[in-house]
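Final report, closing paragraph on structural work. Over the funding period we assembled a curated collection of sequence-structure pairs, and we close with a single example.
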Amino acid sequence: MKKTAIAAALLMASSAASAATYNVLGGSFFMGGVTPAATPLTSSTTITDGAYDGAVFDNFIFFGTPVSTYTANTGVDGGNHPAQDIASGDMTSMYAFWNGTEFNQGGMATVTDNGDGTLSLAWSSLIVGGPFDGFTGDWTMDVQAVPVPAAVWLFGSGLVGLAGIARRRKAA
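Its predicted structure, as stored:
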């Protein structure tokens, strides 16, 4: 029973340490033939690989109307999208809701390491339905990895130590 509890705790600690979390710094949106230039986007969001985190960009205004951007498994497109994976560039779970219409705006992104601790993602997505049916949206997103707190590493190493003590007691 103790072994099972320790193994479960170790698994939880290792999965918490392995799920990469990112601060979304901002980005842009451009739709050729519709917008004269890329619209800069701001964000105060933190997203985690493998989790649907909700809102992505703040204060996104398109033709005077706010746009909600978020990640989700399914939306109006009925797709079954995996949760985002920044490292591989999988942003297929991103949606935009504008003027009463929901659009899947996700795609596979090109990931660029900027060499300063940030990554830039860029992808294009065909808009299906609504007033911009057939147009392509071009997205960028800049992120910075959130370091795993030292407490998580300390907790994990403590669990490994406890597992060693329990093993030694059993052997004696």
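The radius of gyration is 21 Å. The helical segments are 2-18, 150-171. We thank the funder for supporting this effort.
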